[in-house]
């Protein structure tokens, strides 16, 4: 244990926000606090998340380390308001001028729709520093304006700053090519941010390689911190052999529009012809997209046919994940397909100790994550036939799974905790704060 | 400018229908969006509701029977400094010698099409509408049908009077096809 320091964490999506980015921010805060440091998180207010997604995960927020203090900021969100009745006077009455001004801000100042938030982060960071001097600034997760704010704050208060990219900014993950044309302002901002950062952190080896190749002068400062399992919230689920009863197959996570839902449901229909899946049900747990306006469309895609025994059970607090995992026999892990993506939910799926069926392109980096998991059945490709085949294999394994296999799966999951992933880089933070 | 009177609902449409009690206001202040909104309002009236079409193109009454109509163009031309632009010297001189000049002045047409005016025009229309609350009856509006950003200022101002008014893009799906 080292001397107690004060770390300013720029993490807009801190709980009770919900969404896939929340867990990594929470893990950083809790880990650094558990090391004995004081952590102040700059996060968006509850009202912000309530307006945006309509849901909060208060149970997860209640499990924040006591040495973590959260500053809820009233972040500018006018650009996200789509309901005319709730718009500001200027936005509703001069929509063209408002839009032009917002576009000019992105074109000339900071190239992101969240650019108006940057000054709020900087001002609030300065306020926190004035009350209690900050030793290190850590900016984790989107929006990218947070990284800009970290750089500016670092310069103003002359403290090191670290940027933790959940998703890269200038790389299009899905197309696997530059997200912006050469010379775009985003490239200039990113270079400035990375040039000045004490450490640049990202989530998987393909992205580490990409950052090192793109910014060779910063290559020695790029670090890997994989996503992980939070054993304090995702505890060991109960296990009992399946026997002859119909299987319960499950998906857990945000049900986004870009998941291969159609291919999966086609595969599910095919797989039900197999005796292993006779009478089986497919159970989706999670939010329907990230924005409330997408929910109905996703639900329609999900429950397209009543006789397929496909059910949506609604969202699940991270604190209730074990309960859900314990009620499922096979996990169906639907992911988007990109070699730069490692799904955070993969760790929760591992924690189930049950067979996991990978419904994604094998190039997705999550495949690497599961290479030592004893009961992983990845579809060879994202087609109905290949998915059906993987589902049948998973179902067969579920029916035969023993307690010893369950233990082996759990042991593999416990190798991937957040603390294990963060600790080596957090050790380096101690050096930076000396 | 006054609203054209509503056709008697009893004469053509049902006395009571799924839209009975609903009061829809359609904001079609650019001609491009007008027909879609007008059709939606026509359905409201057919189904027993009340509907008002707001335009700003100098047109006459609404094409769909029973839909009341408010056109704001003349008031807009007389609003503040617009009066100077709309009343060109050529037109004034023609009037003095007893000639009738049709259409709107070149200066006005250029001004309305200019970028600076486009930025403020739809807000001005909402200001022009403000004294017409007696005809609009904003507190009774149940739905505001909008088409694009040009509808936002008027819709926003109606919701200031009546926060319960819902902003919609069309009538409900089940109303669209005649039963």
From TrEMBL, chain A:
Gene Ontology annotations of biological process type: carbohydrate derivative biosynthetic process
Matches recorded under Pfam families: Glyco_trans_4_4
Keyword Lipid metabolism among record annotations: no
A GO term, aspect molecular function: glycosyltransferase activity
Domain of life: Bacteria
Residues in coiled coil: none
InterPro entries: Glyco_trans_4-like_N, Glycosyltransferase_grp1
Xref: Gene3D superfamilies: Glycogen Phosphorylase B
Keywords: Glycosyltransferase, Transferase
Protein name per Swiss-Prot or TrEMBL: D-inositol 3-phosphate glycosyltransferase
């Amino acid at each position: 244990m080292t001397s107690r320091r004060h770390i300013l964490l720029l993490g807009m999506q801190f709980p009770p926000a919900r969404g896939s980015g929340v867990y990594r921010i929470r893990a950083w805060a809790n880990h650094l606090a558990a090391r004995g440091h004081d952590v102040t998180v700059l996060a968006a207010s509850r009202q912000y998340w309530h307006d945006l997604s309509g849901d909060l995960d208060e149970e997860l927020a209640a499990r924040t380390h006591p040495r973590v203090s959260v500053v809820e900021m009233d972040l500018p969100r006018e650009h996200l308001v789509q309901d005319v009745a709730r718009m500001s006077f200027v936005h509703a009455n001069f929509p063209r001028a408002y839009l032009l001004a917002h576009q000019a801000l992105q074109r000339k100042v900071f190239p992101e729709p969240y650019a108006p938030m940057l000054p709020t982060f900087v001002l609030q960071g300065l306020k926190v520093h004035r009350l209690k001097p900050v030793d290190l600034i850590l900016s984790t997760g989107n929006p990218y304006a947070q990284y800009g704010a970290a750089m500016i704050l670092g310069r103003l208060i002359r403290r090191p700053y670290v940027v933790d990219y959940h998703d890269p900014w200038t790389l299009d993950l899905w197309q696997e090519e530059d997200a912006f044309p050469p010379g775009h302002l985003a490239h200039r901002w990113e270079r400035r941010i990375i040039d000045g950062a004490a450490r640049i952190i990202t989530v998987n080896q393909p992205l580490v390689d990409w950052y090192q190749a793109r910014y060779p002068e910063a290559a020695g400062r790029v670090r890997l911190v994989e996503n992980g399992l939070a054993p304090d919230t995702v505890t060991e689920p109960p296990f009992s052999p399946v026997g002859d009863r119909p299987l319960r197959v499950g998906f857990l996570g945000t049900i986004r529009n870009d998941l291969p839902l159609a291919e999966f449901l086609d595969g599910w229909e095919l797989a039900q012809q197999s005796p292993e899946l006779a009478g089986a049900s497919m159970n989706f747990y999670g939010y329907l997209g990230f924005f409330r306006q997408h929910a109905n469309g996703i639900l329609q895609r999900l429950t397209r046919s009543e006789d397929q025994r496909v059910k949506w059970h609604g969202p699940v607090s991270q604190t209730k994940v074990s309960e859900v995992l314990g009620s499922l026999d096979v996990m169906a892990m639907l992911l988007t397909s990109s070699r730069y993506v490692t799904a955070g939910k993969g760790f929760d799926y591992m924690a189930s100790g049950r067979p996991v069926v990978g419904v994604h392109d094998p190039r997705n980096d999550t495949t690497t994550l599961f290479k030592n998991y004893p009961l992983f059945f990845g579809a060879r490709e994202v087609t109905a036939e290949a998915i059906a085949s993987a589902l049948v294999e998973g179902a067969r394994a579920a029916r035969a799974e023993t307690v010893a296999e369950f233990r082996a799966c759990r042991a593999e999951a416990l190798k991937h905790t957040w603390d294990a992933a963060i600790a080596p880089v957090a050790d380096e933070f101690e050096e930076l704060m000396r | 400018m006054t609203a054209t009177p509503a056709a008697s609902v009893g004469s053509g449409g049902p006395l009571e229908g799924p839209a009975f009690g609903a009061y829809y206001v359609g904001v079609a202040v650019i001609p491009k969006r007008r027909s879609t909104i007008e059709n939606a309002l026509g359905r409201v009236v057919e189904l027993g509701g009340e509907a008002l079409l707001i335009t700003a193109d100098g047109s006459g009454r609404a094409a769909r029977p029973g839909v009341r109509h408010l056109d704001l163009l003349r008031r807009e031309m007389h609003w503040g400094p617009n009066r100077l632009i709309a009343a060109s010297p050529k037109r004034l001189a023609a009037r003095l010698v007893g000639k009738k000049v049709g259409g709107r002045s070149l200066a006005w047409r250029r001004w309305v099409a200019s970028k600076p005016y486009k930025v403020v025009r739809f807000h001005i229309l909402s200001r022009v509408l403000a004294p017409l609350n007696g005809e609009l009856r904003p507190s009774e509006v149940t739905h505001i049908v909008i088409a694009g950003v040009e509808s936002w200022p008027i819709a926003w101002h109606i919701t200031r009077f009546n926060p319960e008014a819902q902003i919609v893009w069309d009538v409900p799906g089940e109303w669209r096809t005649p039963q």
